[in-house]
Design brief:
two-stranded antiparallel sheet; 65 residues; 15% helix; single chain; alpha+beta
Length: 65
């Protein structure tokens, strides 16, 4: 999430603002459907501090092509 928010220029200045285009932060829904077979779950990266059980959880998702 940190790299994503940094790339999208999302910072604390948006805290407590409504999610509207006028505030600079909004959500959009696109009808593009991604088949579940194209979503790959893998272990998270860079969380060695969490211990072996939590490090191995498949909580990182990416599109497989």
């Amino acid at each position: 999430p940190a790299k994503l928010t940094k790339a999208l220029h999302i910072d604390k200045t948006l805290n407590r603002l409504p999610s509207t285009p006028e505030s600079g932060l909004w959500l959009e829904w696109h009808e593009k459907k991604i088949p579940p077979c194209n979503i790959k779950a893998t272990p998270r990266i860079g969380i060695d501090y969490a211990g072996p059980v939590w490090k191995a959880k498949p909580w990182r998702f990416q599109l497989s092509r």
